[in-house]
Amino acid sequence: MSKTVLFFPGQASQYVGMAKDLYDHSSEVRDMYQMASDEIGADIAHLSFEGPAEELKRTRFTQPAILLHSLAVLKVLGDSLPEFDFAAGHSLGEYGALAVTGAFGFDDAIRAVVKRAALMEDACQRTPGTMAATMGLTESQIEDVCNEASVDGVVVPANFNSSSQIVMSGSIPAVKKAAELAKAAGAKRAMILEVGGAFHSPLMESARLGLEQHLANVTINAPSKPVVANVTGQAVTAPADIRRLLVQQVTAPVRWYHTMAYLKDNGVSHIIEIGPGKVLTGLAKREMRPGQSICLDTLEDIKAFASVVA
Fold first, then answer.
1. 200 is a catalytic site residue
2. In terms of C-beta density within 10 A (0-12 exposed, 13-18 middle, 19 or more buried), how is residue 76 classed?
3. Please, where are the H alpha helices in 26-162?
4. I need a labelling partner for 124 at 20 to 30 A (CA). Which of 48, 130, 131, 204 fits?
């Protein structure tokens, strides 16, 4: 019997205008955006709908904007939310996966991501860094490249996005050196990314410590369905493990390729991506070859999906 996973996107899936139709449609969604704006100290609804794009790209705003969009889809779906067997999210998307399974209340998930985003932006400002995307090298080759480039500073694998796409993260000189070494090692591409800092690297240590303090006081329940954790690429169900892995996730690599492999090995053939964009569905089409994939981003998407379900 085929199984279904709900995917929740991460940073870089944002776009100006995201979730405006959901906001206009639902008073519950509007209340959720107001609560988030109060927490952030800025009008996240206006920023999501009107931009400017450069401001929306700031980590402090991007992360809550994407989570809010995913949660807005869930609010509007309501009872039309399909049966599913697993949930997983890329980096900050893991909070959406935990919210849909009841491990987090929606408000607690929003507050945690608002805190996480502020801490990570602060860490970026304290310790400048960058990231580079590579195509065509294996995990072991990337690890060798990072080890060799580490003479120039911190650089580590940060995102295992697919079998051929791996992102490195760290100090600016070391990441630049690693990109050069990756090209020399035969990478089809090694490109410095336009990002705010060195996410999922040791340079995020101050954010990891701050998030640990925040999550210590947040109620985490056993999820109704297994959530596949970024840090391990394995299902997690115990609240203590969820808390520990969310803290580790800030400085550990996102094992998305391993997540997809785990889901495929466990019989998942249907994918529903909840929130802005189609990035995770695109990766899954190449790696998992699902029988069915659906993206629920707009109100039109939800209405079409609900009519089919009905």
1. yes
2. buried
3. 27-40, 44-50, 53-56, 59-77, 93-100, 106-126, 139-149
4. 48
Q: Which two tokens stand for residue 215?
A: 């999550």
- Whether 72 and 98 have beta carbons less than 8 Å apart is answered as no
Overall average pLDDT of the 102-111 stretch: 98
CA distance 124 to 260: 29
How confident is the model over 264-277, as pLDDT tens digits? 999 999 999 999 99
Give the model confidence (pLDDT) of 4-50 as tens digits.
999 999 998 999 999 999 999 999 999 999 999 999 999 999 999 99
**How many whole angstroms separate alpha carbon 87 and alpha carbon 221?**
15
- Which 8-state DSSP code applies to residue 150? G
Residue labelled with tokens 């069915």: 292
Check: CB of residue 39 under 8 Å from CB of residue 82: no
Reading the block at residue 232, the tokens are 């391990």
Indicate which residue of 37, 70, 91, 169 is catalytic.
91
At 77 the pLDDT is 95
The mean of the pLDDT values for the chain is: 96
The DSSP code sequence of 218-235 is S--PPPSS-EE-TTTSSE
Domains in the chain, CATH or no CATH each: 3-125+202-309 (3.40.366.10), 130-192 (3.30.70.250)
Please calculate the CA angle 50-56-59 and round it to the nearest 5 degrees. Answer: 160
Burial class (CB in 10 A: 0-12, 13-18, 19+), 308: exposed
Sign of the dihedral defined by the CA atoms of residues 241, 166, 256, 59, in that order: positive
- Pick the catalytic residue from 69, 90, 200, 258: 200
**Radius of gyration (C-alpha) of the chain in whole angstroms:** 19
> Considering the entire predicted model, what is its pTM?
0.96
Q: What's the one-letter identity of residue 87? A: A
Give the integer Cα–Cα distance in Å for 292 and 5.
11
